[in-house]
Amino acid sequence: MSNAEIGLIGLGTMGAALALNIADNGFDIAVWNRTTATTHQFHKDAGDLAARITPTDDLEGLVAAIKEPRAIILMVPAGQAVDDQIKALRPLLGEDDMIIDAGNANFHDTNRRAQDAGDLPFLGIGVSGGEEGARFGPSVMGGGKRAHWDRVAHIMTAISAKHNDEPCATWMGEEGAGHFVKAVHNGIEYADMQMIAEIYGIMRDGLLMDTAAISDTFATWDKGPLRSYLIEISGKVAGATDPKTGKPMLDVIVDAAGQKGTGRWTVIEAQHLAAPIPAIEAAVVARNLSSQRDARAAGEALFGPAPHRFAHDMMPLATLEEALIAGKILCYAQGFGMIEKASKEFGWALPLPAIAEVWREGCIIRSEMLDDMATALREDPDRNLMTAPYFADILKKTHGALRQVVAHAALHGLPLPALSSGLAYFDAMRTARGTANMIQGQRDFFGAHGFERVDGGSGHHGPWGS
Ligand code: NDP
Hints:
By secondary structure, the protein is α/β, with parallel strands linked by helices. The protein has helices at residues 13-24, 36-44, 59-64, 80-89, 107-117, 130-136, 146-159, 177-206, 211-221, 229-239, 249-252, 262-273, 278-290, 293-303, 317-346, 352-358, 369-379, 389-411, 417-429, 436-447; strands at 6-9, 29-32, 53-55, 71-74, 98-101, 122-128, 139-144, 162-163, 166-167, 169-173. The site of NADPH dihydro-nicotinamide-adenine-dinucleotide phosphate (NDP) has 22 residues, from α1, α4 and α6.
């Protein structure tokens, strides 16, 4: 029976949640999983939604269960598994049937797959929000031919998160545009998380606050300008107790952060684009560094622990909050700056305001501030977000706090890689005459690279030999 509106391959964490979300929104869906037992268990556990779900045991059965022209979502690990599934599926599909890779693909792979597909319908879709988002409303960033997106847009918008009734699902552009935007989202997520962790470090080691007080502080900040999913969960994480030992949960978690690589892809791509995203780079570096536990312990044994403790009156909590506000704006300014650069470089016309809108709900970086960012980008998508009047006003009020926090942390040996690089970015971006004249002089000295003069003309050389 070819009744299903759409098909889905890969009933892991994300695929299972997405399939239930699709069924929950009234669409019949056919599913297939490499391990057949998982398919049947999933169907058995689907409760009332089982009636809308057709479990299938092989790809032929899956294809046969879907209405023509078909659309099949892949929710398998990024990389070879996606290529293998496309290779296995294509011979079974008609020329109007569409494959949708909804995993976390590297956008270069999506570009290649879109080119390989030629006229055969193919979309690369970034889905954010983890398991909960996939089940109850993710943020969806679509990429591929607009006509192909339009064919499934009704399903994508129905299953997506909603912000004031507006769906958080948008077509971003051709080929890998959706996966590119998702990668930058993840890069911003790394920096946002890292900045929060750095402020947690000041509260813990600089101000000697206990986890309950830290939890309360995040909960309070979640009612103000920092209101966001990440601040909310940071408060909950800080407030949790380990059932095994009765200690604060944070105290029993090893300080080595994992990563699946999407932050790294963003940083590598930013280097290719010459797009400055230092806070995001610092956050990726911080994760790499966090995993070097033995080396860090050896360093502490050699140099001794830094004198972390601040005098209490040196750092009011309101100053930490303002520093985090400034850091967050600078981190997003960098992320949107990278998107704008990529948009021009790849000829994508990426819709910056719509990107901010699509991130307002359903994804990990959802926050109150994104609403104002969408407004600022709608006014002028080409300008650096830090110079948009609304955010410039906030930065004028808060960059002093960021400076104070970074300076005190440096004096007390507390590493703040993301916040301090955010501050350096701010200072660089408000310095009309920087120091690269020295770099140009050096380059001309050893390599005769030539330089521009302030009084006009290029290709000049200095009197180095005389
Ligand atoms: P899981 O590991 O939970 O599930 C993977 C699924 O893919 C399983 O159904 C597995 O089948 C199937 N699979 C694995 N290898 C192959 C293969 N070679 N051929 C066919 N099927 C295969 O992963 P997730 O659901 O977490 O992730 C899926 C995708 O979604 C990834 O690209 C991930 O990066 C992305 N993503 C994940 C998020 C998350 O929070 N987890 C958030 C956003 C995106 P089997 O049961 O047989 O092992």
